[in-house]
Amino acid sequence: MPTIASDKLEDVCRQIALARGSDAAEAELVATNLVGANLTGHDSHGVGMLPRYIKATFTGELAINSHAEVVTDQGVILQIDGHAGYGQVIGHEAMEKGIERARMFGLCVMTIRNSFHLCRIGAWGEQCAAAGMVSMHHVNVVGHPGMVAPFRGSDARYATNPYCAVLPATANNPPTVLDFATSEVAAGKVRVAKNKGVQMAPGALIDSTGQQTTDPWVLYNEPKGAIGPFGGVEAGHKGYGMAMMNEMLAGVLSGGQTCRPETDHEEDVILNGMLSVIINPSKMVYLQAFEAEIDATIAHVKASPAANPDEPVLVPGDPERLTRAERGAKGVPVDDETWREMLEAGVSVGIAEEDLRAIAGVN
Q1: How is the chain split into domains, by residue range?
Q2: pTM above 0.90, yes or no
Q3: Please, which pLDDT band fits residue 91 given cuts at 50, 70 and 90?
């Protein structure tokens, strides 16, 4: 398993995207976003997605150099169509527009439809937070068959439908970043387990008969199994309920589509809808009071004596920051199968394997 410095890994992704036809700005957004996911520890949304993206450009399901188009503009309400462009571009451009409106009006309610994979949704919340905004994001997924079974169900009916909410940094705390799939695990984590040749934790997957399994191949071999809803056997109704609300809020309000067989495309297609609510806190409360109350709340919660002295109380975003610091210093581990797929993607766009290895600094 190679460990690759983040800047070199970014350059590998950048060169592959450029060779496929992305302009320099698009290649940069794709590379930094994917490696950024790896740096936070979310390998499920990192560079392992790039081979899938490149494959989709050849089928025409991912449109290179597309941009976010405003199709409805009612001041505080924006509707964006991504025209199947890279989610790294569509998400970034859409958030820029939403942040601008929130600065003007104090609020922006924005939807995105027809974006190719928006990747780690926390990145869009962090973009809003960097501008001083509070944001919430509801996401659905269409284009490929379902991967998640509904509560009390035994086969896949919808996708991982993430939710994200982010508070901006204060004087004493970095941004608070909540970002999670409404399935028991993200689908990409199953892919990572498959590529590493390891089993999943019990309770995350069911096989094609509805029975619990730890085998990640159940999402890849026919007849396929499914991921269970967040919360598992005892509380899966909560994850399932939130997934359904995300499906409707993101898929219907955006004017996009929802998770039905009629909306399936190629197996490698990941089209996202997203409802984002971006709030300018300075239009609602005094910023000094806003920050002071956040800091006081975080301090109160973190003061709880740790049940395990080696595992102190954290708040959303802390695990990612710890991993980012470690991987930023030591490099990003890339499993052998993912690295093989990345080299294969590079070769498919005309870059020699030895050149990619040289860029990455690995043999």
Answers
A1: 1-59+331-363, 66-182+236-302, 185-227
A2: yes
A3: very high
